[in-house]
Amino acid sequence: MDYPELSLLVAGTPRSGGGRAVRPVVNPATGAAVGELPLATDDDLDEACEAAATAFPGWAATPAYDRYGVLRRAADLLRERAGEIGRATTLEQGKPVAEATVEVRGAADILDWFAEEGRRVYGRVVPARTPGVRQLVLRKPVGPVAAFTPWNFPITIPARKIGAALATGCTMVIKPDEQTPATALALAGALVEAGLPPGVLSVVFGDPAAVSTWLIRSPQIRKVTFTGSTAVGRQIAALAAEDVKRVTLELGGHAPVLVFDDADLEKAVRLAVLAKFRNAGQICIAPTRFLVQSGVYDEFTDRFAAAIGTVRPGDGLDPATTMGPLAHVRRPPAMAALVADAVEHGAEIAAGGGPVPGAGGHFWEPTLLTGVAPQARVMREEPFGPLAVAVPFGDLDEGLAAANRVPYGLASYAFTADRSTAHAVAEGIEAGMLAVNHFMLTAPETPFGGIKASGYGSEGGTEGVDDYLFSKLVSEA
Ligand code: NAD
Description:
Blueprint: E1 8-10, E2 13-15, E3 22-26, E4 33-38, H1 42-61, H2 64-80, H3 82-93, H4 97-118, E5 124-126, E6 134-141, E7 145-148, H5 156-168, E8 172-175, H6 181-193, E9 201-203, H7 208-217, E10 223-227, H8 230-242, E11 246-250, E12 255-259, H9 265-277, E13 287-293, H10 297-308, H11 331-344, E14 348-351, E15 367-370, E16 387-393, H12 396-403, E17 408-409, E18 411-415, H13 419-428, E19 433-436, E20 451-452, E21 455-456, H14 461-466, E22 469-476
Bound molecules: nicotinamide-adenine-dinucleotide.
Family: Belongs to the aldehyde dehydrogenase family.
GO molecular function, one term: succinate-semialdehyde dehydrogenase (NAD+) activity
Keywords: Oxidoreductase
């Protein structure tokens, strides 16, 4: 098995052993341990913050062109190692190895893009009211950042945070999820090999609440960025507020898909199956609530249920697998509770609905529930798994009202042949992102973020760079 040795990375040096506590990393396809992860001591955490603060002035003063060189070299190393890193991802996270390998290449693209964009951090000259006065607006890095990333995209999400921070001259202490440490360490390792100075990036693991409290309260940390659940995001924002630290939050979603009577149903269903069951539905922008106009509701749900039969759940190392297990032992019971509650509220199971028969590990069938009552928990709680619901609606206003009914506002989707319907959805939908007639929303060049309980700030596009900068006014007479 190709699972690497695990360590912390503090002040440029891997750390393990030394009496540190450890926890196992479990392969979700089998339930077997694949590795042992050392957990940071309080001294490790303090030294990581100290190193980030010590390295910050030098890294901020490094020409953007040189920072670009480091990130670009790291991106090339990731591309060279994509197969090997992708295999480690599958062993610790479960997704099919082809999907994991594509994710590594995508992370390389993200580093490339931030590397380039870091060279285009321009200030402004603002005309003054007084003759002889020159007003400059300088764009400066905010300082050392504490980052917390989840297990669902174990290289994409760290790459977005690390890429933006390092390209702009910030330093970072990152705590990736303890279920997926090897993938995040492979990214950090590529950066170190590419010439990143010691201390610019440290990687720590431990009890999530204890580590995040420690890092956010550290006087050296000036900004916090978190991707995960809304419940945890709330706690993190509250902690950061105590010392008025800047925060970026990418939290949960509950994406609606408005399918109108005039939609191309063949295309909508074909793409919906891919988008819903990719990464076993463990995606914050996964389509979840299929709100289907009454004229095509029956046809859409019949086609969707039939297409679900083409999904092949299995071990991600098997090339025939198109959907892996859920990443955590706690996720199948979460699916079971949502399905049982929906059925109690009158829903019908059109496809799936239970654990994958005969499978070990943490598998759940690709599932479609139809006729789900608004009171069912799944209509407002993010399933974060291979579970879709379908509900009919009448006219555009009713569809939009249903789409906007949840506290979340991250991704949204619509399928229609009519430009004016698409325009009305774009105006009326309460979401940070909308895709019409497809499901693609994640390019390094475009902003990625939500509103309402889905958080604030952005992790892509020029907006993602702005999140790591502050404006300094210099007025010279
Ligand atoms: P969870 O809330 O227990 O954990 C979510 C993530 O936050 C994990 O990576 C975890 O290690 C981390 N975390 C937990 N407590 C923390 C703390 N106090 N400080 C810092 N980090 C902390 O949920 P889970 O069971 O792991 O995942 C399921 C839920 O998480 C889903 O319902 C989904 O909303 C959310 N989630 C969202 C994303 C996303 O991309 N937005 C990714 C993963 C999980």
